[in-house]
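hey
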């Protein structure tokens, strides 16, 4: 039996928020929408290799799992060109240590004087994400109407939810400048690295990505995703309230928020000290 349904339609019916997976498929397929007949064994193998060059292994693992779920669902209804897709699209989860900016480093970015319009726009957008926890896709739509009673209220493009997050004089100034031009991620990441280097964000760090340990100056590893990690980590360190951070970031559950927090404070000494005050009744 064959169904008259395109792969992209089937995918969006189940994963309507994960359009970016289809975007990667289209980009790999010479900017052409992928359909069932395109998903040959060679195509899938080379697409996985492409993904591993474009995103982290854990992100690629998630994207492939989504594709695998759709192929599995329609495997009996559609004559798929590759029957062993499950093996190809099953990737291992690897350990990750990401980086983030501290409040002092965020202040260095605030103090930095951009040298041109591109730097000005990207610096502002990155800072807004660091200070509000917003996704890039939401930051570029901000304007003064989003500032309501000292907080920022916006409609999240990805989740289609209304989110309330914190504001401050710096964020209000950045929003009012309306630097909303959208740059390609490759350009954004290249420029934000350059800005961080010029701003003096160069402490030695160790990260783990794609299962490999790398060390170097922090600015070399900064990308657009680290802005939200910076928000999650700094706010968790300040409040120790993961439920609050989850709400401010517009997440549905704290499991998602946990993946953004790069450093957890170790309070075992305080716990031991408190318990040490207990004593047995004589």
């Amino acid at each position: 039996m064959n169904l008259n349904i395109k792969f992209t339609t089937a995918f969006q019916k189940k994963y309507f928020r994960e359009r970016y997976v289809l975007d990667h498929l289209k980009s790999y397929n010479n900017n052409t929408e992928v359909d069932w007949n395109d998903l040959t064994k060679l195509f899938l193998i080379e697409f996985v290799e492409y993904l591993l060059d474009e995103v982290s292994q854990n992100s690629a693992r998630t994207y492939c799992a989504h594709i695998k779920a759709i192929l599995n669902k329609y495997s009996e209804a559609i004559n798929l060109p590759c029957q062993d897709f499950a093996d190809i699209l099953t990737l291992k989860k690897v350990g990750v240590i990401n980086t983030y900016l501290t409040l002092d480093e965020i202040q260095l970015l605030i103090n930095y004087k951009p040298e041109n319009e591109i730097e000005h726009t990207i610096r502002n957008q990155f800072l807004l994400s660091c200070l509000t926890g917003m996704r890039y896709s939401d930051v570029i739509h901000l304007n003064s109407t989003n500032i309501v009673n000292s907080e920022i209220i916006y409609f999240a493009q990805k989740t289609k939810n209304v989110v309330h997050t914190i504001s401050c004089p710096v964020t209000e100034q950045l929003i009012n400048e309306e630097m909303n031009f959208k740059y390609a991620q490759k350009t954004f990441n290249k420029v934000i690295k350059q800005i961080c280097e010029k701003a003096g964000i160069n402490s030695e760090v160790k990260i783990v990505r794609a299962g490999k340990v790398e060390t170097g100056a922090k600015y070399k590893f900064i990308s657009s995703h680290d802005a939200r990690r910076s928000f999650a980590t700094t706010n968790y360190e300040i409040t120790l309230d993961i439920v609050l951070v989850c709400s401010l970031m517009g997440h549905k559950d704290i499991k998602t928020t946990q993946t953004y927090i790069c450093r957890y404070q170790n309070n075992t000494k305080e716990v031991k000290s408190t318990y040490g005050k207990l004593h047995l009744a004589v």
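The chain has 14 helices and five strands. The mean pLDDT is 89.
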